Amino acid sequence: MTVAVETLPSLPATAPLLTRAVLTARGRRGSEVPDRTLRVEDVRIDRHRLAAYQRLTGYAVSDTVPQPYPWVLAFPVQTALMARPDFPLALPGLVHLENRLTTHRAMDAAEPLTLDVTAGAITPHRRGRTLDVRLEARVSGELVWECDSVYLARGSGTEDAARGESPPALPDGPPAGVWRLADDLGRRYAAASGDVNPIHLHPLTARAMGFPRHIAHGMWTYARVLAALGRGSLGPSTSRVWFTKPVFLPSTVELVRGRDGDTLVAGLRSRTEPHTAHVVVSLSA
Amino acid sequence: MTTTRRAAVLGGNRIPFARQFGPYAEASNQDMLTAALEGLVARHGIAGERLGEVVAGAVIKHSRDFNLTREAVLGSSLAPDTPAYDVQQACGTGLEAAILVANKIALGQADSGIAGGVDSASDAPIVVPEKLRRKLLRLSRAKTPADRARAALTMRPTDLGIQVPANTEPRTGMSMGEHMAVTAERWGVTREAQDQLALASHHHLAAAYERGFFDDLMTPYLGLSRDQNLRADTTLEKLASLRTVFGRGENATMTAGNSTPLTDGASAVLLGSEDWAAAHGLKPLAWFVDGETAAVDYVSGDEGLLMAPAYAVPRMLARQGLALQDFDLYEIHEAFASTVLSTLTAWEDEDFCRERLGLDAPLGAIDRDKLNITGSSLAAGHPFAATGGRILATLAKLLQEKGSGSRGLVSICAAGGQGVVAILEAA
């Protein structure tokens, strides 16, 4: 299958695209995504924004790009792809289920990146259909980073759909950390990342989207857990995340961590209901 | 333990120094110290190692950074079971940290360690005024609602405001520059001599960069790969054109050009025993021979604030049986050009050496071609606690270039009328 590459002149603005995606959500249909890769070349990292991101996610302010950060950079491109009229799924309501990130070599914030976003297969799921999205980052043609995301478009599911790989069990035992997540975490992360999805901002905007109150950005929880695992994710490594249950804000969560061979396994669980896993992360360096 | 062994300087690393509110404006002390440590660890291949200890500090510190150095170690690739602690002796912090580590190695209490320092003049803690602070504490102590209301009612809009830490001596209310201006006048240090020293600092530092001297002493940070304050093309004319900022009237000689600017940065130095170095495939650059600290009574006006090294050095020389001229290199921290010149003038002064130092004869002059030959703080900048590590790593490498047995003297003045000095000898 050849995929047409369409190069955008620069990173688009996210907010107008999100608005368009909301306004055009109804009436999207089909089960094939257009064979299209959206590309933005010469993406320069704004060090002030990077520093804000590093501070908020627990990484040290440094030149090394945190593993989830290219996802943040590519977010407007991904939004642009999904806001296109011929995109079959409605962006509002898409639920980020899983993610895999691979860093091939440490990325320096001074290196201009070429970002590619490609929508992959749509697959039946018990609770609707899933969409694969692939992101790639290159420096002068060298693939330095790649990402595979799985999103769920909720709808009439297929009962006997093949199940994806289930996440590793969250380590039990005493917490390795207790994090009090503030009410304004979503707004702060939105400012740092540009992901202004209303479900993260305020109880009222979240309620308008069908949530009882606002929730933490999954990519924040992912980054924060990776940062807590040390420097491993800054160099060549692969991490995976399973977003199992949203974290309502404000709330207190417990970090748990363990090891399975060479793989670190960690995650966040509810402080009040320790059996509720919010997010499970694995990291192999 | 009655025998001691030699502690070696094995290498050093720092991040380039940035001007206040420059590229490091958003980096914390912990971020910068971690970056300096991590570069040192990477260059010497000691990731995952448990070191004897890591000792560092910062002069301007947030109260939340009570375990600054330990936090930086935990954020580095060193083994998490490497202990660490903070020290603070104003601008002498970095060198004092090295003395502590070297002494433990000499006594056999540690086989290896890192000494360092960091300071940010940009990411400074902001403090509420003292009056408001006391009222807020009273409010938080209050147990009953009535007490709380009473405490809250004492607050006035005029209590509001913020205080940013200043480079001022608490007991005199005078800034370091104002203190130095008094000393400079006392020793008759001229504007021309200060500008000459500043010029040499910039030119020497630029030349050192040109020959790649810092390639294995520095890790680029936040887009900076050279000290931001360096003006390679500065001239005496340019320096002479600057207006004076400290001192008054005709005798004012100190400008922004011959005083160090406020800067952000961090440094770290790896020390170890001979055996530890050999076991880790590392070659000693220099031996840490001796260290000495001194303090002077600047409060009564008996001595200048930054003159303590003038006292520390002769004490250390006497202990080592050395003359001031027995050194191949001198690293005298340029807090201000006039600090270096006042100290050198004092050592040449018969009365000072006899009456103040109790010596029969003056220490004498030094060969100025051996002084700060790769530049010093006037050009590089001076993130207070980071200066000791910068100087130690620079001197250790310079001595190694000169060859075995060559000897270097380090002298650093510090706030509070203190001074920290040391001797290194090429391995």
Question: In brief, what are we looking at here?
Answer:
The complex is a heterodimer of chains A (285) and B (427). Chain A is an alpha+beta fold. Helix content of chain A is 22%, strand content 34%.
Walk me through what this model shows:
The complex is a heterodimer of chains A (285) and B (427). Chain A has a single domain, classed as Roll (Thiol Ester Dehydrase, Chain A), CATH 3.10.129. Chain A starts with a strand and ends with a strand. Chain A has helices at residues 14-23, 47-57, 69-83, 185-193, 203-208, 218-228; strands at residues 4-8, 36-43, 95-103, 113-125, 128-139, 142-154, 177-181, 237-243, 251-260, 263-270, 277-284. Chain A is globular, with a radius of gyration of 18 Å. In chain A, 22% of the residues lie in helices and 34% in strands. In chain A, strand 4 and strand 5 (128-139) form a beta hairpin. Chain B is α+β, with helices and mostly antiparallel strands. Chain B has two domains: 1-124 and 167-427, Thiolase/Chalcone synthase (Peroxisomal Thiolase, Chain A, domain 1); 130-159. Chain B has 14 helices and twelve strands. In chain B, strands 1, 2, 3, 4, 5, 8, 9, 10, 11 and 12 form a ten-stranded mixed β-sheet that branches. In chain B, helix 3 (93-107) packs across helix 14. The A-B interface holds A 47-48, 51-52, 55, 60-63, 109-110, 231 and B 23, 26-28, 30-31, 34-35, 38, 75-77, 220-223.
Structural class of chain B: alpha+beta
- Briefly note the CATH topology name of the largest domain in chain B: Peroxisomal Thiolase, Chain A, domain 1
Largest sheet of chain B: 10 strands, mixed
Number of domains of chain A: 1
Fraction of residues of chain A in helices?
10-25%
Number of helices of chain B: 14
Low-confidence stretches of chain B: none
Largest interface: A-B, 12 and 16 residues
Rounded average pLDDT of chain B: 95
Tally of helical segments of chain A: 6
CATH fold naming of chain A? Thiol Ester Dehydrase, Chain A
Corresponding CATH superfamily of chain A:
Hotdog Thioesterase
> Radius of gyration of chain A from the CA trace?
18 Å
Q: Give the SSE order of chain B as H and E letters.
A: EEHEHEHEHHHHHEEEHEHEHHHHEE
Rough shape of chain B?
A: globular
